[in-house]
Amino acid sequence: LSASAWEVGAVWELSVAEQRYQAVLAVIEDGFTVTDVAGKVGVSRQTLHAWLDRYARHGLEGLADRSHRPQSCPHQMSAAVEVRLVELRGLHAGWGADRLRYRLLKEGLDPAPSTAAIGRALRRLGLTGGQRRPGRREYRRWERGAAMELWQLDVMGGVRRTRGIDVEIISWLDDHSRFCVAFGLVERATARPVCAVFAQALRTHGVPEEVLTDNGKVFTGRYASRPVEVLFDRICRENGITHRLTAPRSPTTTGKIERFHGTARRELLNGLVFDSKAHAQAVIDAWVVEYNTDRPHQSLGRATPAQRFSAAHVDTVHTGPGLRLTALADDRAGDDWVSRRVASNGVISVAWQQVSVGKHRGGEVVDVHVRDRLLEVWSGNDLIRTIARDNTGPVRKRRASRPHT
Fold first, then answer.
1. Nearest by Cα to 395 from 344, 337, 331
2. Residues whose CB falls within 8 Å of the CB of residue 107, separated by 6 or more in sequence, listed in order
């Protein structure tokens, strides 16, 4: 292609390398200025100077397209780190970028890649499980100012066993520190098993000022057709614990324990099937220890829940002799317990004293705790009536027969 042809413009198509070559020849052979040729080709003078330099160094091959990738990248993640990320992700599918970076630092890799770099590497390697939606900025995290001020409680199902029915989890979380104070397995989340887990947490960590639960019947009888004091409320009352309830259909009120359950499902229970309840409890206990003492928590400034719980835990919490769990300890086999069948008019008789417990309980067998000055009438684990004794006469010990189930 002659210079005159380039000057008037060719009507046929040229490759990118050929167009660059014609521009270079126009400068070095035909004597056109760099400014004129750059304007004609539609590039900057700096680009044309780069073409001239590449042609002088490498000839015609230097004018071909090449990758814009830099020759070196000092902050590029090494292959060894990528291999370790793949290993950790395979062992712990629920771990995110922040947890993976924490583990790399703990293994002595310093400086470790940033959380963003690890996230990009996971996406590049196809190891992400979907994008997390960003949190709403108008939400504000609310928490109590010190440990033992408030415990959140909830029940979670879905612990699968190879034999038998699935079991449920009763878990307690300290609101201030996110420290898991209890994580117990029960066959059914009824009053006595739930309260047994609660009692064990009280014996281990002390008595909190308040507890927060939903409105389940196992926790409260305030909204029953006939309000009663259930076993859980009685333990709270005897130990001076304020029992707070969530508003109806408001799971975000107990958001910390719900988020804890989500973490447990993702990192522990995802696809696991246990041989027995004891096996499941052992595996879960080990995970709870790791969660409390080894797992960094983003909302705590990457401290562990145990660090914040122990730092804020005061020595004034009462345990031991001050703890009252008499309601849970009652086995109803002693001489101070009797049972009665409710008559059709809703009345029972204890020590020649008639007590009305309601016609709707006609035919039901109830237990009566005979105290020095009080009669406590229980239906299962629900305290349905407390009345002062009007005499100290003898109590018939024969217990009412219960229907076979």
1. 337
2. 84
